[in-house]
Amino acid sequence: MWTLCNADGVEASPGARTRGIIGDPANPGGTDSPASRKNGKHVLKIGRLTETTLSQSFHPGRHVRPKKKAELEQVEGPGAPARHILAKDEVVVGRSREADVQIESEMMSRKHMLVRRVGPEFEYEDLDSKFGVYLNSVKAFAAVLRDGDVLQLGKVVFIFHEGG
Amino acid sequence: MSTFVRFWGTRGSIPTPGHKTRRYGGNTSCVEIRIDDSLFICDAGTGLRELGVHLLAREDKHLEAHLFFSHMHWDHIQGFPFFVPAYSPEAELHVYEAKEANERVVRLLQAQMSSEYFPVSFADLKSRIHFGAVTSDTSVDGVRIRAFEQIHPGKSFAYSFEKNGTKVVYATDNELDLSAKNRDTIATNPDERRILPKEFVRFCENADLLIADGQYTESEYLKKEGWGHARATTVVDLGLQSGAKQVAVFHHDPMHSDQDVEDKISICERRVIFSGSKMVVFGAREGMTLKL
Ligand SMILES: [Zn+2]
Ligand SMILES: [Zn+2]
Q: How far is A89 from chain B (nearest CA, A)?
């Protein structure tokens, strides 16, 4: 049977806050194995179970590494191979000089597709282009993009990478 | 004239959130069909909640929507109590069922909001809600709407929406396989074309988009015959026989990961290629919009 205990080996009382870190944050890489046996029970040390330790030292979401930006990897068409980082909240792909990703290619409309950031995700929308946008070979007007999706705009093909 | 179809929930039976289902989505049945300025919603699975949020963000003050229920199993109604427009006095909702459903929709939408299940009662919803039945001459804003009874425990109904030659069919929770005329020979040869009943083929005829329950693979179906859902490959045959331009395989099994759905669709694609047709078949995917 497993039981939770604090760094001093004192068993967590029922109802005590049990969310913690394995091992003692004050002794990183300490010699104590986080899991040991005590009175025949497996004991998992999870650090001091106080509100202060947790709130001062660790906060979910604060310690994530900087993320790689989402991008459109161009694998076919003029200029390929190329990587187009989606640095702005709205990125227009097309033949126009005003497009953020400008690609001179037949079957590409002047403003062909908009890629928009919505919270942590990206969506695309066909800007009423002449030849449409194909998502994984299906002509689709718009979609929420997922890692590895293949977008085809005429003879130009992109792979969407979520980043992160 | 413009027709847009967006999938808000494509999963069958129960929501399946998580990384394994990110591409096709975890919300249960809900499809938005927008024909010119009219808004039709097929089923109120959990996908309806997010559609409601979008509608409030993008619509003018007055929102009018027409909701159609295939049937009243959980995965087709659970989003309704979380559909924010239902709480807005500015919204007008027309709720439909097939005439043969005998007011089951009214009764069960109210029942799922009784106090034992949900804190707000149906009577407290502020929107104007009208109930109606789809008959043989139903038409809304010039869109002809028809219903067809399907094979499913407790019955379910397919709906077709048609205007100026553009047609969308929504046919989920339908064990099409049980209606095949050549069931005996299919059992020994799954590659054989399934001959489906003429009436239903005619109902689906020439759809620009056929959205149909294709929950199972061949081997899964063998273990789940009688559960009320079809093999994806049988949906392909329905599309081929009815002359559909595109088929969206819908109501994905809750056990299916994105990869499983993709494998199921690959088999469907091969079946189409083998038939010599150019019909498009794909897995219905949450957050995807088609323009017809
Ligand atoms: Zn269902
Ligand atoms: Zn059902």
A: 18
